[in-house]
Amino acid sequence: MPKQIVPSDIDPTAIGEVSAPPYVRLPDPTRLFVRRAQRLNALAEIDELGPYLRFLAALADVQHGIQDGLSDPDLPETEVRERAHAFGMPPLDRDRVASGAFFETLDRLVLAASAIEKPRAAADALDRLKLATPAERHALVRNVLADAIAADALAEHVYVAAALQLHFARLAACLDASTLVPVGDGACPVCGGPPVSSMVVGWHGSHGARFCACSLCGTLWNYVRIKCTLCGSTKGIGYVEVEGGPGTVKAETCDSCGCYVKILHQHKDPNLDPVADDVATLGLDLLVRESGYRRGSFNPFLVGY
Ligand SMILES: [Zn+2]
Ligand SMILES: [Zn+2]
């Protein structure tokens, strides 16, 4: 049975500790994927989705390993980014990704992914991707960036999504965090992407603050608690968790837009990862869906729920 928690039950920010969180924490691609791989492997030991989580862990290792010697990503010109800023747009334009630097990343990822152990469907999809025409590859890229992956075509998109995550994380890492400003509810201030989940963190100086995690570039942006991360409503917010669980992952439900996004209590367990723990808590999705809420976040590795 789900456990409903009213907002007043949530731990307040630790009293006595000054919390002055930065607005944005940019990803460090040299650490992001290796840590995610470790988390996925740890989750694979305890979760019934073990084989899939192990595959994603191997894919995260590939995302990490192929960075060595990869060409620098092609950051948009300063003037383009300044113009975007002036219009309240994020500096990275998701529609202009189909560049040489990205396809070099994808080629490397496809090659390296050939060597990892994978489920049958993932192996077949990789074979098809190797033979795909440039136009077909562009179409897969567009689907991932539009958050429009059909559930029955998940396997085709997993590798493309992994390459896009790496490409955008490397681009995001080149930006100056102090120049970034909010671009709207439910949108990453770096690339405009939706959150994959949000996290209450225990970082020094930010204890108890909540950050949304971008599903594409891995940027974390500060967002007040008890507020829908999608539509911005502060009314009708509730929390659901699986009874008997560790209490570190909950679903934040919103009656205004009818959606939910998971909230990870990373201050209780620093190993939690916004992407890995979202996939590994599929049971929570099934539970929340019974209450009529729709999944409002996007995770290219968890589609169709
Ligand atoms: Zn982003
Ligand atoms: Zn909402």
Automatic annotation (TrEMBL):
Pfam families assigned: FdhE_C, FdhE_central, FdhE_N
Subcellular location: Cytoplasm
Function: Necessary for formate dehydrogenase activity.
GO-annotated cellular components: cytosol
Domain FdhE N-terminal: 21-184
TM region positions: none
Chief location category: cytoplasm
Listed GO biological process terms: protein maturation
GO terms of molecular function: ferric iron binding
Keywords: Cytoplasm
Domain named FdhE C-terminal: residues: 226-302
Protein name from the UniProt record: Protein FdhE homolog
Family designation: Belongs to the FdhE family.
Source species, domain of life: Bacteria
Occurrences of domain FdhE central (ranges): 188-225
